[in-house]
Amino acid sequence: MQQKREDFYQKNYNKNSVVIIGSGPCGILATKYLKENNNVICIDNREDIGGQWHFDDYNEENHPNLQQNSFFHHYGTLPSSLYENLQANIPKYLMTFKGFPSKAEYQEFMKAEEFQQYLQDYCAYHNLKQYMLFKKFVSSVKLVKNLNADEKEKAAFTLDKKFLIEIKDAENYMESIRYLQADNVIVATGHYSVPNYPKISDLQLFKGIQLHSHYFRQKHIKKFTGKHIVIYGTSMSAQDLLYIILQQTDASLQPKKVSVIGNQMAIDRLRQSEAYKDEINCSKLGLLPTYIQKVLNEKSLILESGEKVEDVDVILYATGYQYSFPFLENQIDNLIEFVPENERKNSCGPLYKRIFSVKEPNLIFLGLTYNTISIQQIFERQAIIAQRFIDKLITLPCQEDMLKDYQEDFKQSQSKFVDGRDYLKVSYFAGLNEIEYSKQLSELAGMQLDEQFNKYIKEIYVPISVNLLQKGNYPQMKQQQISHLLPLNYNPDEALF
Asked: Are residues 131 and 67 in the same domain?
């Protein structure tokens, strides 16, 4: 079946051809919208759809074939996978796609396995897997015009498209190397695969467990029993770790103490939390509004505030991810650049409307934006724009104007962080306001904005989340019921953007 999919794609090069990299939510949407008028193949290194929602218990410690694994060879990590009992951060009505509401029996804030099943049902409804190729890894994407003679010869077919794509077996980067060509390439690989680690002086002195949230699984809970855990960071992943460890874990398996170190504003919110009131009062939960300066010895840390944190057994890093696209990172094409260039890769560009590569608009990125409330609706709108551009229903400005637009956007994003980390943050609370971004996307697509959907964001979910999150009550937010405030079986209007 998989070989037939690849053969069918190659035999239909006469049609406009699109290679989609990644079968997570964005890859699924791109496949759905582009399959009607184009020769489409969606390639994923896993054995099934879902991206990070596809649970995978393998990590660098237990993978049976790590050194030969293609993803690990190129990225230096394995693909990200959400941990077992994770719940979504937003209610289900903000995560569903047009014309396909979630099941009524699903929790208001869906469990990871519920959303994964939603994606499976969506794919089955639209018969999307026939366009997908699994357990294959995209190792390079290059512009045909820049290939040398040896690279052209390897393809072993006439090159008359814009891109040459190298693919190989997912479990062995040296096997089954072959080539496809495409008029358009859509990158839907997400940005949660290369963990970011903060710089901490003398870190080699620490002898306890160090674990990024990227690698956290339920099996680690037993290793934390009776230990002193430091959670470094205050982002949503830090909130999830805290919630799982202190409120979803049996008392007999809980740690002795958890110290959260990070952003002053987030720590101040946690200090007034009702959800963690008991843990704070008995000093089981310590809250430190500062950052780690260095390691003092095998179990002690010194903070920038001058305080010492003693008897530390575990450091859990909730410190985010870097952007990484090794299949594009060649110096000849230079289609994507990272910011900062030689340090933590906080963002990338130049991108028009955070989607199109300014240097080559037929290279399209979906799902790079983060911190959105209406996460799936932002992604679906991006996929619709990609489809309308590829199907020649809309046109983009000239390269000069797109670059100017990007530069203005990027400069505006630097008002808070000069290193560019806010450029791809599209949120109701920070970065570019997502309602404004939706308006930009609707104008680009030439489609009417769904004002009712935006109203349900602003008037229903935002007040609830603000009230709970600003008071440090993240666990309580996950228990909220919201669907009864919406029309029965509500789903975004398919006729609107």
From this structure: yes
